[in-house]
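seq as requested:
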Amino acid sequence: MKSLLLFVCSFLPVIVFGDRAKPNVVYILADDLGYGDLKSMNPEGKIKTPGSDQMAREGMVFTDAHSNSAVCTPTRYGVLTGRYAFRSRMKKGVLNGYSSYLIENGRMTVPSFLQNQGYHTAFIGKWHLG
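struct tokens:
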């Protein structure tokens, strides 16, 4: 028992004083980009992507995602909220720039969750959520 306690206590400094740096998170959602288009996922890929190749080599790559829709608005809604698109008010199609926001005020999203954890977040690119 004393050996077990000593063993557990030997890790205490690592737990208490260990490196608490948060990893950077870069999430890329691209319309019509095939899994094999990037060199980091397919060495035979035709598109040169040195930046994303380097990020893939030096970081973690998430490779098992599934979209519950074939168009952009419900896919983006699902990615940001973690909810199925059919749970939103939108029942078909894609929202245009004049639509009201699809994500309800106060709805927890991945960016708001990360902000609550001390991250700074940004969105760049196509929105299509109203």
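The chain has five helices and no strands.
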